[in-house]
Design a protein that fits this description.
The structure is a homodimer of 141-residue chains. With 141 residues, chain A is an alpha+beta fold. Chain A contains five helices and five strands; from the N terminus they run H-H-H-H-E-E-E-E-H-E. Chain A binds a DNA duplex (25 and 25 nucleotides) through helix 4.
DNA sequence: GTCTATGCAAAGCTTTTGCACCACT
DNA sequence: AGTGGTGCAAAAGCTTTGCATAGAC
């Protein structure tokens, strides 16, 4: 696994450039997001940074800030819950999520551009999409 | 527009075959789903059948029954809210949803099968997917 | 010093659950 | 008659908001 520090520093640089403040809870959250390269819920992130004693509300508000800054991507589960994950530059992918154990893996492949073209022809702009696959992994079967 | 009665009758037949009961609230809900061929929230359906004086809880429970019977499909919005829509046989498609006015249109196209193959190779079974596009429609721009 | 971020408490919203009663088959 | 559906009330679960205080720049 590559050194995680550069990724962390890059995220902090973005925050600074966008005039967001670098605080202890935020540093702890970024460290968690870098260390766990998979989608996490606000609750899970909160548990990971327990040592920092940050409030769950702070986690939500900081995740919102991260999303606005473009360093974190949010998406919804079948259940309605939201997960968050660090954005990797120029890298678009989706996930396959186990319905039972919630393990999530990246699918390094995207064929949605054709669909987005279709939507564009319908007059839509600023298009993006939410796509997640759900299934049962071997261990849960 | 085609006569909507056959679609309604077909749905009722499925319910009967699956031993679900045909009640006033359910008939009103089906009529709404047939009349409004677009994704609706439980709340919206509840408003549409106000004349029947059915409880919102009944709407949720019946939608769950409809989903189990396979006549209704549920999916999640960016916001975490759920929408419901009648299933059209042998027809798989996705939506483009306006972030502002929430109008939803069908995209009669699906290229996800390749992704599902990928997930299968990772050892997952019982795979399905959630895909929605979001954008701004011409009127909202 | 200013202005954003935080903590705590409380509210908000959609969805779910419990339980007694009703009604479809 | 028996099983499933319904209404009402209440809870649950995730997320958001208000406000006073603390802390980053």
């Amino acid at each position: 696994m590559a050194n995680q520090k550069p990724q962390m520093d890059a995220a902090i640089d973005v925050l600074r450039r966008e005039h967001y403040r670098i605080t202890e809870p935020r540093k702890a959250m970024l460290a968690t997001l870098v260390r766990e390269p998979k989608p996490l819920s606000a609750e899970e992130i909160h548990k990971h940074i327990a040592a920092t004693k940050a409030d769950l509300v702070t986690v939500y508000r900081s995740l919102e800030a991260f999303e606005k800054a473009g360093i974190v991507q949010k998406f919804n589960l079948e259940s309605g819950k939201s997960l968050y994950e660090l954005v990797e530059e120029n890298h678009h992918y989706h996930h396959i999520i186990c319905r039972k154990c919630h393990r999530a893996e990246k699918l390094d492949f995207c064929e949605i551009s054709k669909l987005e073209e279709l939507a564009k022809h319908l007059g839509y702009s600023d298009i993006n999409h939410v796509l997640e696959l759900y299934g049962l992994c071997e261990d849960c079967r």
